[in-house]
């Protein structure tokens, strides 16, 4: 689709959207499921373009003559060049509404306003389309207000919800939507896209792909030089944690705790560190943090396998406590002191 970058690795989701478009029977409500950064919202925008593209009818007739089910055909829907397509892409089409969380929540006022908008006939297009991004962040009153609209959806409207998983939404909302799942992007496809389209080096792409967890947007956020240098600093601190005095460990905890938004990256890097130590003696070629191979090799001499398992469990426990909104600083203090203790118990290497 012109004006958009194809999200790699989403063949199944693209096929599902293609079948919906070719059938000409678009449901009133769709639910796009998957982790952040796999193209759910961009696919929703593309579908909104297809619903209002002035070339849509002609393209649909042409598609009906073809028996092919190749997902690449989705690039023909929409044209991406007509006025409606360009305005939807720019976010200024009167019949397409995008709602995103503000301060981490979607409130009832926004849903009531959305219901009012959808109750009106399309201003100029074929259908009114509303994209409710991160719908799992609706508060209970907002969810109940949306449910009332889903029970009696207005004509010529399409509501697209995106969420990480259906369990985060009201079951009654989930049951009224057609589900399309977006799987995490596979590593080879993600790495290839980063190298070809975003200027990543091969080694950098290898590390970022391993840490991104199949999320395209997360991988792009790691492109910043400051992120890579910050990651290198954290791995260096982890490698010498066992020889650090208490005041240094507590200072590290304070520094890491200051930015709660970055803690997910902190935990992923720490987990990749212990994973590399465990795998090093078996196959060094599968180490994620290859640019710190010497640190990994040295660390493998200080841990037993049991200590590594306990270290990983400690990290996951701290992550769960912080996700549950416990005191971030205290959780991080406890984690780093526990890792210090475990690093000092394994003196004979992995066994």
Question: Could you walk me through the main structural features you see in this protein, from its secondary elements to its overall organization?
Answer:
The radius of gyration is 24 Å and the shape is elongated. The protein has 351 residues and is an alpha/beta fold. Residues 1-9 have low confidence and may be disordered. Strands 2-3-4-1-5 form a five-stranded parallel beta sheet, with helices on both faces. It contains 16 helices and five strands. Helix content is 53%, strand content 7%. The protein folds into three domains: 11-181, 3-Layer(aba) Sandwich (Rossmann fold); 186-223; 225-343, Zinc Finger, Delta Prime, domain 3, CATH 1.20.272. The protein starts with 10 loop residues before the first helix and ends in an 8-residue tail after the last helix.
